[in-house]
Structures are given as structure tokens and as C-alpha cells.
Protein: Cytochrome bd-I ubiquinol oxidase subunit 2 apoprotein
Amino acid sequence: MLYVVILFLFAAITLYFLLGGADFGAGIIELFTSTDNKHRTRKTMYQAIGPIWEANHMWLIITVVVLFVGFPVIYSEMCTYLHIPLLILLLGIIARGTAFTFRNYDAIKDENTQNFYNHMFVYSSFVTPLFLGIIAGSALSGQIDPTAKTFAGAYIFSWFNWFSVSVGFFTVALCGFLAAIYIVGESKEIADTKRYIKKAKIMNVAAVICGALVFTAAYFENVHLANWIFGNKIGVTVVVLATLSLVWLWMIISAQKNRQWIRLLAAFQVSMILIAVGHTRFPRFIIFKDGSSMSLLTDHASGKTIDDLAIGLMVGSLFILPALGYLYYSFQKKER
Structure:
């Protein structure tokens, strides 16, 4: 049953990054869109993120609940050492959701309040995935120092370092890339399609540059990232698959056909990146600066709690997954 819980945990993290990441990316794309095209971009974005808007944070809630119930020691350690970036992450999610709701459904849409909500939406869309990446980079790279004697050493520099911040910017670039690719399939006008393809290329280049920054920061901060990813067959295989899927994606876009495949290819590519990053660290979920770590296979709740949690997750998925499938189907049918 423990492996069932772990499977649900990683599935929820992956789906949150693929769906919630594209959701955040919608605001990132809007942030870097010219004033003349912002209205058209927003309209297309609403069509793209509509089916998953309300459901996105369900995956984050599942992740938090699984950690809190199934791995309480790991949960408490993360909330202790990374409480500042976690707080900023949660505030970003709240600000973004509030801005999205009020700028669409506000009873009185005057220019000043709309501008305020627009700014809140785009900047929180940037900040939230930034700190999501910072948290992930800090937890997995050995930046957290449990022996620190000062507040800054324990609660600031555990996440405020070059490596974690570069991972945060890499996450922002990936979210923007996902959103740009997803929105290409939603655009109806040729001019809009070309504009979104251009944005996807820009975000693709930004992801490559930020990825290079991650490796550079890893070198200077003694994080053995290259060996971490390329030092085993699985890591090399998934990196090759991610690269091939990216090439195939751009071939399809260049051919201007079968655009329904590009979303799957983008999601596949990002999933391969997550596997490349996470598989060598498994089952460790937090790695500390002194070399110690917290493992999903040892630092978990009692066997009875894990069994009940696994049963609850499996039974709940029987209701949730069909409902989500029908939600997506309903939106697509409404568009047609």
C-alpha cells in the first residue's frame, strides 16, 4: 500500500506541473504580450484554461494531503525550513485566483480596478511557479542546512541560493512553454497561431538558457547535477526521449498539421524532465546539506494510516477521474 500512496503522490505532482504549470504559463504569456494583443491573448487563454481552471489545484491539495497524512515528518521538515517560499507560493496562488475571478466576474468593470487585477494576475503567475521551482530545487539538491545556527542559515539560505533560484526560473520558462504550446491548438486565426508559435519558440529558448544557468549554478555550488541526471541509463534515456519529442513537436508545428499532438508531446517532454530529475533521488524526498536525507520508504506514517490513505485515494480516484474526463469533454463539446 505504501507504493500505491507514493504513486498517487508523484502522479499528483506531475499533473499539477503539467496542468497547473500551463495555467500559470497563461499569465506568463500575457505578461510578455504587447498591449495591442493582450485582449486577444486573454480571450484565447480563457478558452484554453477554462476546463482545468477549477480542477488544477486539486492536484496540489492531493499532494499536501498525502504528505501531511502519509509522511508527516517530511511535511513538517519542509514546512519548517522552507516556510518562507511556501508562504509566498500560497499567497501567489491566492492572489492569482482572486485576480482571475474578479477581472472576469466583477460586477463593475472600471479601468482602474481591471488594470489592478490584470497586474496582480500576471505577476502572481510569474512569482508562483518561480517559488515552486525554488522549493523543489532546495529540497532535492542538499541546500537545506539542519545544523545552521542562525535564522538566515536555516531559513533563508536554504532556498535563497543560486541553484534554487535558477531552478525557479527554469520552472517559469517551462510553464510559459507549456502554455504557449497548449494555446497554439486553441487559436483559430492564422495570425494568432503564428504569434503563439513565436512565443513558444521564445519560451523554448528561455528554457534552454535557464537550464544552462541551472547547470552553471550547480557547478559553482557543488551540486553534482550532471552526474545526477546523466550518470545512469535511465537519466540518459529520458533526456534523449525528451529531446526527440521536442524535435518531433517542432516538425509538426512547422508542417501546420496534426496540432492535437503537440500538447501531448509537450506534456511528454516535461514529464521526461521530471523523471530525469527525480528518479535518482527516489526514495529520498528531502536531502540535507550534511548528506542525510528523509525517505518516502522509511519516514512515513504507521502501516494502518498508509493502508487507509491508499484505500481512500483509490476509491476517490474512481469518482474524480471520470468527473474530470467529463469536464474536459463538456468544454470541448461546448466549443464545437
